[in-house]
Automatic annotation (TrEMBL):
It holds the Pfam family HTH_26. InterPro entries: Cro/C1-type_HTH (IPR001387), Lambda_DNA-bd_dom_sf (IPR010982). One of its GO terms (molecular function) is DNA binding. Residues 12-67 form the HTH cro/C1-type domain. CDD domains: HTH_XRE. This is Helix-turn-helix domain protein. Residues 183-204 are annotated as: Disordered.
């Protein structure tokens, strides 16, 4: 195994341990073929493709160059750039305000199979309309997280096929619809904040 690959493997393993991921979870989040990282660890892949490294780096919220240099991600820097690494205080608060999550996890362990620390953070930071989640709310939120995770994984798979361009066009179209709706909502809010006198003849 070359030094570059050794540095990548060491960094990836350290980052996975920090996040509580196993290798299968990393490969799923990165959208790479299962077994890709195992082959790197065994030295079967001397020079990983930069495209593959980019996917791994993105999953770990790192730069490819940092991955190649063997530099682990800085949680404080990453939280500033991506806003997805939660502090210990945030996690403690989320868990204290959603105590029913632990009970549901004990009763329905299969619902939470192969969950990453990010999945748990997302669930714990979810609130119902009246505050903390109840048992049903936890199950609904967990099922939604599973559907989102499965959908993202399927999209990664499609992006590696001849349907890549079709998938990109569909996602772009859906994104434009979402953006248009946001723009309309923002316009409605601004319209509601406008003073009635702003449109009166005497105000011009």
């Amino acid at each position: 195994m070359g030094r570059t690959t050794q540095a990548v493997v060491a960094t990836v393993e350290a980052e996975c341990r920090r996040r509580g991921w196993n290798i299968a979870e990393l490969e799923r989040k990165a959208g790479i073929v299962r077994g890709t990282f195992y082959r790197m660890r065994r030295g079967e892949t001397e020079n990983p493709r930069r495209k593959t490294l980019k996917k791994i780096a993105d999953a770990l919220e790192m730069e490819v160059d940092d991955l190649l240099r063997g530099e682990a991600a800085d949680p404080e820097r990453m939280s500033g750039r991506f806003g997805s690494v939660r502090s210990g205080e945030q996690r403690a608060f989320d868990r204290a305000t959603n105590p029913v999550v632990e009970a549901v996890a004990r009763d329905r362990p299969r619902l939470f199979a192969d969950w990453s620390s990010d999945d748990w953070d997302e669930l714990y930071s979810t609130f119902g309309t009246g505050g903390e989640l109840n048992s049903q709310g936890v199950q609904v939120a967990a099922e939604a997280i599973n559907r989102k995770r499965d959908t993202v994984h399927r999209l990664h798979v499609v992006m590696e096929t001849h349907l890549r361009d079709v998938a990109i066009e569909m996602v772009d179209a859906l994104f434009r619809m979402v953006e248009a709706k946001r723009d309309r909502m923002s316009a409605d809010v601004l319209s509601g904040l406008k003073s009635p006198s702003d449109d009166s003849p005497g105000s011009r």
